[in-house]
Structures are given as structure tokens and as C-alpha cells.
Amino acid sequence: MLEEEFSQGDSPVHRLDPRLKLVIGALFSAVVAVSSRWSAFVPGALLALGLLFLARLPLRKVMGRLILVNGLVLFLWFLLPFTVGGEIIWRLGPFAATRQGVFLATLITIRSNIIVLAFLALVSTTPVFALGYAMAGLGIPDKMVQLFFFTYRYIHVIYEEYQRLVKALKIRGFRAKSNMHTYRTYAYLVGMLLVKSYERAERVREAMLCRGFKGRFYSLYEFSVRRADIALTVFLLSGIAAMALLEWV
Amino acid sequence: MENNSFLINLENLSFSYNGRAPALENVSFQLSGKEKVGLVGPNGSGKTTLFLLTMGLLRPSSGKIELFGKRMEREEDFKEVRQRIGLLFQDADDQLFCPTVLEDVAFGPLNQGRSSREAREIAIDTLNSLGLDGFEDRVTHKLSGGEKRLVSLATVLAMKPQILLLDEPTTGLDAETTRRLVSILENLELSYILISHDMDFIVKTTAKVYAMVNGQLSSEREVVPHTHVHVHDYGRLPHVHTSTEDVTPEHKDPHK
Q1: What is the 3-state secondary structure (H, E, C) of B23-45?
Q2: pTM of the shown model
């Protein structure tokens, strides 16, 4: 669960101020998400690949993540060509694929791959807590940042609790079938997890009160933008601007 | 002795969880300076409840709580003194909620109004004093059980409390970590109350032991620390006990 295997490393991308990474990532995705021309996609893909290369991420693992994403995209390929109306180019029994449908599916495939590549390079190279502080540094409300931290911290604990419950089921011979007993058991499992999480939340709150929590987190970390950061940011931002120009001009 | 010479003075506390039999009934308890006290008793006898009442995390249905000579009634009263009492929770995962060890240990000092530089220094000093050098950047949820426990203790000690309340601190610890905890507690210049089921541990770390049974705590039931001669398999193999170097003779009276 949440191994953060790309977050440790020493590269210009790893060292880049996390606040800048978030801003760049957001701008980049926004531009790619509304683009529909090769003249924007090609520089976009080059930029994303360049960042990946600069971050020196292990290619095999990056491919693994891409396969995950494209698994989802594959479903769109089953659906979109046959559901979007337009000029029919291929028939399969009662189903007809349209040129517009195929175009849309292609577009989504390209966009999502480029965005994921860029996010892998920018966001997955940042430790989760640095991301949280970067969000706070960008003026995202405290409550959102705290939710982000607590989710990260306790998702492991809740997952472990879940696994304990599943083990408890297994050692008593539970096997999932399609019957009432199975549904009821799963409902109990989910209910139990909710109750346990709620109780843990109460205890964590008590622990925080005991340590003088007054509703505000104080950060130990201060970010600083270095000269190399500025250079990389200016380069990336001009790249994004160029993509936007090529798309709309 | 006057009341205000006690650090903790609980008088006739009663408490019950919603609609259940009372968890505590007429419990009185005093802790004075430099006192190290153990609290034993079966599961569900109200030991943890006593801690939560003392910290103001639960309110008694009747009785009086005085901390550092001051009567505690409202949340505001507790807010001030809570930071002078360190409560170590049973489950370290409840206590450690920050992403990294350093942040977690610095959390208390930051709340006490220290600057981030001071908080960082206090945190590192506290970690070092517990033999946790170099743990600053470790991720809390990836620590082992024993490490989590010691880091939890660091988060509490970093606030420089005058009293520690330790709720089953040895649960889940191996012999080596338990020994480390014993030597840490021996060297602390603090008063503490310690809940444990581990008699060996209690004997080594406290001077006085109370027993809690069915929500009742009485000084007549003050427990006499003692050790047993014991027998177990594989006794010939070289092994270590969490207990005692000197095993005292078996006592003659049977246990109740």
C-alpha cells in the first residue's frame, strides 16, 4: 500500500520545490486535457518523457504504472466507438463503430498517457508529506491538507485492520459465494471497519488534545526556491505555453 | 498533608459509560512528587478510564479532580494542565499521527508555542536521550512496534511533562525493548503512574503498586511486589527473562 517507491532519489526533478511541481503539473494537465492536435501532443509527450528521463525513474516500473492506466482506457475502447454517433466505419453484428467514436477514444488515450507520464515524473517523485506542505504553501485550506495527511497516515492502519478481519474470516472457513451469508458477512466487515476507524479517530483526537492541539498544525519545514528550480520552471512553463499556442493558433 | 502538595488528587470519582455498570466507583487516589506508582488489575477494571478522567478526556459523574493543587472542572481548566501530564496511549498508532518522526515529536512543543527551530532541537534532543538517534526522518507508520512505542514516549517527553501516565507500555514489546524501557524509566526524574499486566516490569519500575478490581481502588489492597520461582520448557537453553536477576524464594501463602 502506498509504497512511494519513486519518491526517494536525487535528480533535478526530485530537488524541485514541491510547490512548483504542483503548479507545473496542474497547468500541464489542464493544457493537455483540452488539446486535440498533434502539434500540442508531440511537444507535450516530449516534455513529459524529458522529465521522466531527468528524474531517472526505473523504466520498467513506469511501464507497469502505464499498463494500469491503460487498463482503464481499454474499457473506453470497448464503449466509445460503439456509443458515439456518426459516420459508421466498421460493423460487428448489431454493433457499429463510428469514426467520431474512435477519434474520441484515441484522444483520451493520448491525453491520459501524457498526463500520467508527467505526473509520474513530477508528483510521484515527491514524498507525500512534502506534497501536503506544498498544498498548504499554495494556500489550500488547512482542513484539506489535514485530511490529506490523515488519509495517508491512517490508510495503512485501516488496511491492516481490514486484513486482520479478512484473516479472521478465512481461518473460520469463510469463502465468498453468491449468497445472503456472503453479503451479510461483507456488510459486517465494512461496518466493523467503519466502527473501528471511528473509534480510532476518537483516540487520535484525544492523543492530539493531550499534546496541546488547538486546531492548527505548525509546519517544521520551510520550502525555498533555488536558482536551478527557477531555471527548470521557466523552461517547463515556456514549454506549456508553446503547447497552448500550437493548439490554438 | 495539605491537598495542594499532591500532583494528582482524585476524590471519590465515579464514572460509567452510557447505560452500563459503573466503570469506576468512589475511587480516590493521590500522587505526590517523585512518586512512581504501578496500577494492576484485570481487563475492564477501569484502569484506562482512570487515566482518561485524570486527563479530562472523560468527565466523572461525581467526585473531585485536582491537578497541581487546582480544581479541574471545565475543558478550559484541563487544557492548561494537560500539557504538564504526558499520557502514553496503549496503541502507539493512536499517538503517532504525523508523517515523520521528527514532526510527531515536535508537534507538542510547537503547540506549546515554541518556534520551529526550538521545536526541532527539543525533538532531536529527546530522541537522542532515548537512544533514537537518526530516527528524525523515518516515516512513522513504517516503524516496528518497539520503535513506535519508544517514539511515542519521545513525543510525550518532548513536552517536558511533570507527570507521566503510561498505559500498558510493554504490551507487544520484546525482552530487549522492555529492558530499554525499564532503564529509561529508571533514569527519569518524573512522577509516573504505570498500568501493566507485566509484574516483572512493574516491580522494576515502580515503588508502590495499587490494584484495581471492578472499578474499585483501595489502599488496603496495596500489592506487595514479589517474584516467583518458575519452571518452563527449554530452560537449559541459554535464555533471558524480562525479569529479575535475583529470583527470590517462592512465597508460602497461596494467591487469592
Answers
A1: CEEEEEEEEECCCEEEEECCCCC
A2: 0.72
